[in-house]
Write a structure and sequence with these properties.
The chain has a seven-stranded antiparallel sheet with strand order 1-5-6-7-3-4-2. By secondary structure, it is an alpha+beta fold. The termini are close together. Helix content is about 30%, strand content about 20%. The longest helix has 15 residues. The chain has one domain.
């Protein structure tokens, strides 16, 4: 008998595995406000983890001066979403602030994008579950500069993303997902992943999918855009346990360009992953 699907990983059915060209695309869809900041079986554990990381890395919760209005709007939205009693994790007094409270109220990382005369830029926020980047390296930079490490972003997505941000209407919430192949479920990954060697199909069971559920919404008063990132992990056996998802991922990987495989951290082991998923 193969692995049994665990409902805690039903979000695997949301992975962007479209037919056709698998290179970069936005892949957004509308969501209800009630689905903006969901909780799950990992929430308590993640809030404790975020509290510890905040004590160790307080610089990863910061705002540029002059952006108090969008921050106040954001905090009001979160308070409304969570109710009058916010779920605050343990934070030591010396790092307690409105922003650090936000960091341990929700398990998502929360970032604020602001428009100036030239472009959208990162005004600040909270990034405690980074995937190979740091808030301190990107704060104050434009969307294009933030995405510089992403191969072909300027060619395939830059104009689409800028246009999307400009046209996002107040009251419309959207979600998108990405996914990558990781060796282990490491939430705090602020440096580049090392090179990976070839592996056999049997070893794929030890890998995991790292996925970010990202949402965007415009703030009505400041016109800033809130960008949330919910980090989730699933063992590969849970992909294999879902025949439809497994088949779509195999199709995706078979059609993927070398650039797309590199972006997914699948280069050099795609054959082993396909073999493993095909065994289900």
């Amino acid at each position: 008998m193969g692995p049994v699907p665990d409902s805690n990983y039903d979000w695997l059915g949301e992975l962007p595995l479209p037919p056709g060209s698998p290179d970069l695309r936005m892949g957004t869809r509308g969501i209800d406000e009630a689905d903006w900041l969901p909780t799950d079986h990992k929430t308590e554990e993640e809030l404790v983890r975020r509290s510890r990381l905040l004590v160790e890395h307080p610089q990863f919760a910061q705002m540029l001066p002059g952006h108090e209005q969008p921050l106040a709007e954001l905090l009001s939205l979160v308070e409304h979403d969570r109710g009058s009693e916010l779920r605050i994790g343990p934070v030591v007094p010396e790092v307690r602030s409105e922003l650090s409270n936000l960091a341990v109220t929700v398990p998502e990382d929360v970032l604020l994008m602001v428009r100036n005369d030239a472009h959208w830029f990162l005004a600040g926020g909270v990034l405690l579950f980074p995937d190979q980047w740091k808030l301190t390296d990107k704060i104050g930079r434009s969307l294009a500069a933030i995405h510089e490490p992403t191969d072909a972003y300027d060619e395939l997505l830059e104009s689409k993303v800028d246009h999307f941000f400009d046209r996002l209407a107040v009251g419309r919430l959207v979600q998108r997902r990405n996914w990558f192949i990781h060796d282990e479920a490491t939430y705090f990954l602020d440096g580049k992943l090392g090179a990976r060697g070839l592996i056999d199909a049997a070893d794929v069971a030890n890998l995991c999918i790292r996925s970010e559920r990202q949402t965007l919404r415009r703030l009505p008063e400041s016109d800033a855009i809130v960008f949330t990132v919910k980090t989730q992990f699933a063992p590969f056996e849970q992909v294999q346990a879902r025949p439809e998802v497994s088949a779509q991922m195999v199709e995706f990987l078979q059609a993927a360009s070398p650039r797309s495989l590199a972006n997914k951290a699948a280069a050099g082991r795609v054959g082993a992953v396909i073999d493993y998923l095909s065994m289900g």
